[in-house]
Amino acid sequence: MTGTEATSALLLGLAGAGHCMGMCGGLALAFRAPEGSRWSFPVAYHGGRLLGYASIGGFIGSVALFLPITHWTFYLRVLAALLLIAVGLHTLKLWTGITALERLGGGLWRAINPVVSAFMPPKHWGHAMTMGALWGFMPCGLVYSALAWSAATATGPFEGAFLMGLFGAGTLPAMLGTTLAGQQALRVMRHTGFRSLMGVTLIMMGLWSLWLATPLSGHEHRSVPHNPHQELKPQHTDPSDRHHASTRIGGALW
Question: pTM for the complete prediction?
Answer without folding.
Answer: 0.77
